[in-house]
Amino acid sequence: MNDIGQVLVLGLVSGGIYGLFALGIVLVYRGTGALNFAQGEIGTFGLYAAWYVDTRLGLPWIAGAVAAIGVAILLGLAFEAAIVRSMVEASRVTVAVATVGLLLFLLAVETRYFGGASPRPIEHPIKASGVELFGIVVSPTQILALVLAAAVGVGFTVLLRRTDFGLGVLAAAQDPVAVRLVGVRLRRVSAFVWGAGAAVSALGALFIAPTVGFVTPGYATVLFLSGLAAAVVGGLNSLPGAFAGGIVIGLVEATTGRVFVDSSLPDVRFLAVFLVILAVLLLRPQGLLRAIGTGAGAKA
Amino acid sequence: MRTRRSSVLVVVAAAACLLLAACTGASRPQDVDVAAGNTDGTALDTPTDVATGDVPVHEAGPATPAAGSTGGKARTKAGTGAGGTGGTAAGAGTGTGANTGTPVPPDSGPVPARTALFNADEDRVGISGDKIVLCAHAALTYGAAFNTGVDDLKVYFDAINAEQGGIHGRKVEITYENDNYQPDTAVQAANTCKARNPFVLLGGIGFDQIPAVRNWAETNRMLYLHHTATVNGSEGKQFSFSALPSTERMGEVFGELAAARFKGKKLGIIKRDSPNWDPGVVAFKRIAAAHGIDIVAERAVAASKGNYLEDILEMKNKGAEVVWGWENALAATEIVKQAKAQQYNPTWLLFPFNLTSQTLGDDALNPKLVGVAMFTAYSNGDYSGSFAPYAEDIREFERQYAKYRPSADLKGLGGDLLFLNWTAMKALHLQLLECGPDCTRNRFIDVMKGYNKRPMPAACQIDFTRGNGHLGGWAVNVMETYRAPDGRVNWRNTDSCVEHLL
Amino acid sequence: MRRVPLPLLLAPLAFLPALLSRAGLFGDDVWFNAGLAVCYAAAGLSLNMLMGYAGQISLGQFTLLGVGAFMSGWLTGADRLALPFMAAVPAAAAAGAAVALVIGVPALRLRGLYLAVVTIAFTYAAQLSVFKIDAISRGSAGVELPRPQIDDFIMTRNADYLVVLLLLLAMLWLFDRAVTGSKIGRAFQAVRADEAVAASFGVDVGRYKLLAFVLSGAFAGVAGAMYGHLIQFANSESFPFDRSLLLVVIVVIGGLGSRVGVLISAAFYALWPVYIVKAFGDGFRGTDLIVGAALLMFTVARHPGGLAEAWGEGAERRRARHVEVEDANGEGDTEPPMPKLPELPRPSGLPERPAATSGDWVLRATGVSVSFGGLQALRDASIEVRANRIVGLIGPNGAGKTTLFNAVSGLLRPDSGRVELLGEDITALPAHARARKGLGRTFQLIGLARDLSVTENLLLAQHVVAGYSVGSALTRVGSANSVERELRSRAAEAIAALGFEQYAHAPVKRLSHGQQRIVELGCALVTAPEVVLLDEPSAGMSPGAAENLAVRLRDIRDELRRTVLLIEHNIPLVLDVCDELYVLAGGELLARGEPLEVVRRPEVIEAYLGRGLEHEAATA
């Protein structure tokens, strides 16, 4: 019983984080049709800014958080302006490769200027002690992450479906040219999508880092893979799906981690996650949760 | 049309790259001076490693080795010459003798080395009339993590060159090549080092790199002194030596520690998932089985995993009261911190680095962390208690840094690394001194193979006479965390230079 | 290939390093680094085969090198089989190919980014479990990969081994060249450009994707052996994931599809980290990654074709000043008349087809229904096309005309219905098989491989008759060379008939729209299909050019004695050439019959113009 409880808690806790990353991925995917491989690392990069503000400048956590989100947004906007804008005609694979370039760039800069793998400690936003559930101490940060993921998911869903701007975002992914004719300002849409995606990434990183304890280059990218899995499970074009997918992946990982305790298969949960992705892609490519209306995901 | 353009491109590209290489000083094979002079043929020991290297620590014992116990076995003349080396050896007790740097008076003529590993051309590579060339491969990219850079590592020989004119009148030139903690880059670094024709190639910390480089050293006939590595894979390697305890030995001592101090307690293992680390686990488990230690949980983690929650939960669920963290300092720090967040406080058995204790701060004191290392503890400004026996070495270290590299951060995260690197360099210095004015590679190996002593207080006994003569490290230091006078949380020795805890 | 390939000519130069090294030039570490550059170049070529030619993505290529290295280590190890190095190389290739085949199978169903995910999964699986198996990687002892040996001479000296590396690279280069100059390379590029177009040219897309993986894997296996024996060691930590990413960067920056670009890019990546630090000091350590990543982003954004394209564009611009291009005059009245379309005899490589006599139907679709999600695109549509006729298919936008074409040509599986060609039920056949059966087709947005030249497109269009095996293509033993010659002469004939000699080697994308249409028609006809489906051939043409097109369409019917099914919006053209007319609206067949009569029907006019205007139209 304890086992099941722990699996549930673990799954929900990490699921919230994966959901956050998945939201960012789906947002960018729905808005531009591109898969952003740097989704995790943008957050990590922002986190270094937070670390700097918190530790070096000694300011409170919230200042660091603002810095992190701000830096991430700037990064997203800069990337969009410098790179994405020149790639209107490019195929999705090409844009994805550009995001791989961004990922490598960020990793290289972090390693070079902050030292490879040096643990920079990050503090919790809420210093209160956590809740113990089934033997796992769940910190308020993690609960907040889950709540935040849900809130962000709802917020973006409402924004995309109910506002004109949001509809413009969705339409732009399908047909950038046509959308211009209708008066949607492509530049604004594009900037919004990349900026918002980056902000979500920073948010995710902010809430997972204290759990992990330190900032090191690349740690968020490992999470990104699980976030990607979550997005795929949710259908890659559904925001609520992304959140739900996050929970699903969190539970899958927690379950396999618990079932395959044998130490000779250390990261079998990674394999499990990928098998899930494969299964979904092969058997039900539209995701386990179908999106209402077709998004940019119609053509993979 | 296309082929012509492409062929031009190819030629230009190739030429540009090679030219660039040439212009940036890739060296040509040098002529090696034949050193004149005599040798005293005494054995040298303590090949030590660089960068994060280990310090060979000797058990406190009689400083003057018995004539038979050193390399003087086959050479009666060398036996009397042992007086000369005896001076150095006697000096090794306090370490000051070596610092006066008095060259050993030449004996009655050069004595041929017993070792015939290198032929006449190879024997004197890297050692000439006025220079000894050393080259090391190390994970320089991780230096920033420890707040250290390459220049911080070179201080010892800068000081020796400036104050003593080098070793037997030869200035020491040491360079470092980055191995990026990866085996292929390490081999690339080894090749770069080889082009400098060093006397010896030094291998810094790296469970993953050293197996590749020691393999390379065999086919490239390069004298290679390296940090801790597995015994598995070292068989038959003629050119590699390590004065440090092997991976298996470290695992064994951790096992003995667990059996000696924590018998009856439930034990968990969090280990690195890597074949280069596994031999230590095998050794640990052997000891554990022999002494009835109850291993209740075991988890393997990938490098730089980041989130150890599930592994910690496993330990917690199974009620492990002691956990052996068989991982590097960075990972170990993260694991402990995350465990604290889970309100899980077992006794941790780790590699004792100040990086861990200082980063964790107070969390490293309740309960105290326990560690086993091939090097000795360092806490800037503390010369008392368990530091007293080697306080002289500490003071010399701090003096040299104050003079030659004041910007180095001895108090902080990398202070203990700099100290262990320093002791390694010093021990190497002493070895080269013992090798004498006409030191050659073969003679150096002679010195190593017969070596059985403790070069200085900050180092443990090194004994190459056991085993196949390529492994000299057997003793380790056991440490615990404590609050240093300056308020930081550092490590200090609880047991110094022990081979067995049971 | 009449000329001696460059790699063969340069092969003797491979021995230069051994000589130079003995002459004292450059330290052995420089030769080591050069060797590393060569290994990376070989790895780059393998990934280029997959990404550059076939347009598939793999984020696990370095792991395939690991497969090759471990296989080679197993065969050459002194305490194992102790086979010579040259015996291990083909084995490494085979191992790489076999593993790549396994990854390639999901590739049939997935594409682009999903495929990338699969390859990541494979990499992780290999790293975490397979490579750690003791029998494969030998734990902490690792696997020793000895240098090649001839009698007593061991190539310990890096410069000596570099000779072997260069020769192996030359060999890979030659194979690569053989691929690009054959139907395989063309098929790859078609698949990369547009799978639908490729299928319409008779390329079995699934099979060729798999082939791309297998060849890429074989190359990677060889590169792995080369690399492993350079380092002389391999253990489970030797093939990390980030190297696979590095390979992607190398290939993209060098230029997808360019061998030389890949070579230069690989050399940069191997040499920069070492020499930039040597030249400028410690502060520059790690900058190679920063610079490289920035270059990657820049390349992908501004010059998707990489260095090769940037170079190519420059040369192109210089050349363009000398060649007159139609574009300068603009489209419109100065557009040349459509030349007579080539009449080419039926190629011998095609299977026998039943002859069609006038009056019989050659193509029939019955009760075809297609729905997308909730949208019914076609409902129970049936058409019948008789031999030697031009049949028109008209209807307002969104009526389902192209959907019907897709169902007929096999790009789309209808929910229900039957398609028959020359008396044979082809409903179950995939698109490329239908092309073989005698169905040709063009596309609304020009169905050509845009990056290929006119000649290459015409060669691609003859894919169904390129009757030689993959092995023959690679080694040039067997029928490959003679068949290629035949294909090229047909293509040349077609080009001559079209009057496009000066554009023979120009990439299709540089031609004007009208010229592309002409090429496309030529491609559709070059294998002498019985039935040709033309999707809006007059789109974008001036009225004069469209008139000309009408002449040519009649030629196809009368002189070439083929059958044409035509989607069109240009009603005058339709009325001019068509023998029969079908009208589709809202996914349903609205009318069928004699053109002039059909267009006057009120329901047809209403479908186009809406109510209220039918009176005006009827009296027009």
Structure description:
The complex is a heterotrimer of chains A (300), B (502) and C (620). Chain A contains eleven helices and four strands. With 300 residues, chain A is mainly alpha-helical. Chain A has one domain (15-228). In chain A, the strands form two sheets. A two-stranded antiparallel sheet of chain A has the order 1-4. A two-stranded antiparallel sheet of chain A has the order 2-3. Chain B is of the alpha/beta class and 502 residues long. Chain B folds into two domains: 30-245 and 378-471, Rossmann fold (3-Layer(aba) Sandwich); 248-373 and 480-498, Rossmann fold (3-Layer(aba) Sandwich), CATH 3.40.50.2300. Chain B has helices at 2-23, 76-94, 96-100, 120-123, 150-153, 155-164, 183-195, 209-220, 247-261, 278-290, 309-317, 329-341, 354-360, 391-404, 415-435, 441-449; strands spanning 131-138, 171-178, 200-203, 224-226, 240-241, 266-272, 294-301, 322-326, 347-350, 370-373, 452-453, 462-463, 476-483, 489-498. In chain B, the strands form three sheets. Chain B has a seven-stranded mixed sheet with strand order 7-6-8-9-10-13-14, sandwiched between helices. A five-stranded parallel sheet of chain B has the order 2-1-3-4-5. Chain B has a two-stranded antiparallel ribbon with strand order 11-12. The longest helix of chain B is centred in the N-terminal third of the chain and has 22 residues, at 2-23. The model of chain B is unreliable at 1-109 (pLDDT under 50). In chain C, helix 9 (183-193) packs across helix 11 (205-231) and helix 9 (183-193) packs across helix 18 (454-461). In chain C, a hairpin with a 2-residue loop joins strand 8 and strand 9. Chain C has helices at residues 6-10, 16-22, 28-53, 61-76, 85-107, 112-130, 134-137, 158-180, 183-193, 195-200, 205-231, 241-254, 259-280, 287-302, 306-320, 401-409, 431-437, 454-461, 470-475, 480-498, 513-525, 543-558, 571-577, 595-598, 602-609, 614-618, and strands at residues 143-144, 149-150, 153-154, 233-234, 361-372, 375-386, 390-394, 416-421, 424-425, 439-441, 531-535, 563-567, 580-585, 588-593. Among the domains of chain C are: 6-240, no CATH class; 361-450 and 530-618, 3-Layer(aba) Sandwich (Rossmann fold), CATH 3.40.50. In chain C, strands 10-11-12-7-13-14 form a six-stranded mixed sheet, sandwiched between helices. The chains are: A mainly alpha (300), B alpha/beta (502), C alpha/beta (620). Chains in contact: A-B, A-C, B-C. The interface between B and C is large, with 56 and 55 residues.
